[in-house]
Amino acid sequence: KQEVTQIPAALSVPEGENLVLNCSFTDSAIYNLQWFRQDPGKGLTSLLLIQSSQREQTSGRLNASLDKSSGRSTLYIAASQPGDSATYLCAVTKRSFGNEKLTFGTGTRLTIIP
Amino acid sequence: DVKVTQSSRYLVKRTGEKVFLECVQDMDHENMFWYRQDPGLGLRLIYFSYDVKMKEKGDIPEGYSVSREKKERFSLILESASTNQTSMYLCASSTRTGRSDGGANVLTFGAGSRLTVL
C-alpha cells in the first residue's frame, strides 16, 4: 500500500528566505505527483504536476522535482512571502486501468514570518 | 474560470439524519471524487466515479453512498449520519488518465463542505 510522508509537519521561516518542502513515497510505481496548496478552511489548489517521466516542473517562484527511484519529491519556494503561508500537500497517482486514485501526504503547514 | 462547486459550505445535522452533499463541475471532466479531511489523517478517498452511473469505493466507503446521474454532478449521501462523520468533505474532478491529447490529470477541488453531526 502506498504511503506518502511529509516532514516536517510545520515550518516557520522569515520572509524572503528560500525554502524546501519534502515529500516521500514508498511505492515508486507512480503515474504522476502533484503539489497542492490549502488555505485554512478552504479546498486545495493544484500548484504543480510532474509526470513520472519528468524530473521537474516550474511555475513562477515554485519548482518541484521528482526522483522516482528514491521515492522523493521536493517543492522549492524562492523568495518566500507572507502570502505563501498555507498548508502544502503532495499526492501521488498510481494508475489503474480506466480510473485513478491519489494518495495524499498529511501536509506541511508553512508560516512565513514578516 | 473553471469550477468545482460544492453546494453547502457549512452544515449542522443531527445523528441519524440523511445528509446530501452535492458537487457540480463545469469542466466536462470524466472523473469525480469525494474525500474527507481530518486533522492528522490527511485526505482519505471515500468514493470516486470515472463515468456517469459508474462508482467505485475508495479507502473508507463505509457509511456513505454516491450518485452520479449526470456527468457534471456527483453526490455524496450519508444514509444515517453519525458523530464520527463530522469532517471536512472535499469534492474534486479530473480528466481521465491517458487522454489521446496527452492532457495531464490535474485535480481540481471544490471549496469544501464542513459537516458537523451532533
Defining traits:
heterodimer; A: 114 residues; mainly beta; 6-stranded mixed β-sheet; 0% helix; B: 118 residues; 7-stranded mixed β-sheet
Report on the structure:
Chain A is about 0% helix and about 60% strand. With about 110 residues, chain A is mainly β. In chain A, the strands form two sheets. In chain A, strands 2, 4, 5, 9, 10 and 11 form a six-stranded mixed beta sheet that branches. In chain A, strands 1-3-8-7-6 form a five-stranded antiparallel beta sheet, with no helix packed on it. In chain A, a hairpin with a 4-residue loop joins strand 7 and strand 8 (about 70-75). Chain A starts with a strand and ends with a strand. The model of chain A has no long low-confidence stretch (mean pLDDT about 90). Chain B contains no helices and eleven strands. Chain B has strands at about 5, 10-15, 20-25, 30-40, 40-50, 55, 65-70, 75-80, 85-95, 110, 115. The radius of gyration of chain B is 14 Å and the shape is globular.
Number of beta strands of chain B? 11
The quaternary structure here is heterodimer
The count of helical stretches of chain B stands at 0
Shape of chain B: globular
Radius of gyration of chain B, Cα only, in angstroms?
14 Å
Inertia-based shape of chain A: globular
- Main beta sheet of chain A: strand number and arrangement? 6 strands, mixed
Give start-end ranges of low-pLDDT stretches of chain B: none
| Mean residue pLDDT of chain A | 91
Biggest sheet overview of chain B: 7 strands, mixed
| Low-pLDDT regions of chain A | none
Taken in chain order, the helices and strands of chain B follow as: EEEEEEEEEEE
Number of strands of chain A: 11
Summarize the structure.
The complex is a heterodimer of chains A (114) and B (118). With 114 residues, chain A is mainly β.
